[in-house]
Amino acid sequence: MTRPRSVSLLAAFVLLTGCSRSDSGSTNPGPFTDPGETIRVQQGAEFQIRLESNATTGYQWVLADSLRGPVRLVGSEYVAPAQQNPPAAGAGGHERWTFRAASPGEAVISLVYARPWEKPISGDTARFRVVVR
Question: Residue 88 to residues 51, 54, 82: CA-CA distances in angstroms?
């Protein structure tokens, strides 16, 4: 007797999703938005951090500390809000920061939301822990 196809598909789905969530070498897909979530990536992979931002205020996310360890900055960009009809004046978008996992190890990416020309730079902060395997 053969098993129904739906049972086999369900078993395969459960097996695949269970394996993808294990902590033994798996990676999170990103983009990452929660500083409380550890970012786990494979060496050589690129990953993104996405933070809410509003360029019309003069505030932007800046690196609070220089990067040390296994993570390298690839680039960052401001992404304006999606087109609305009518466009909302002063609507915020987000910033997308792209990093590369250069070598195995751990790092902390510290970002601060500030007006870079105001010294000392201070404002809301976001700290992301990164584990590179």
Answer: 20, 12, 10
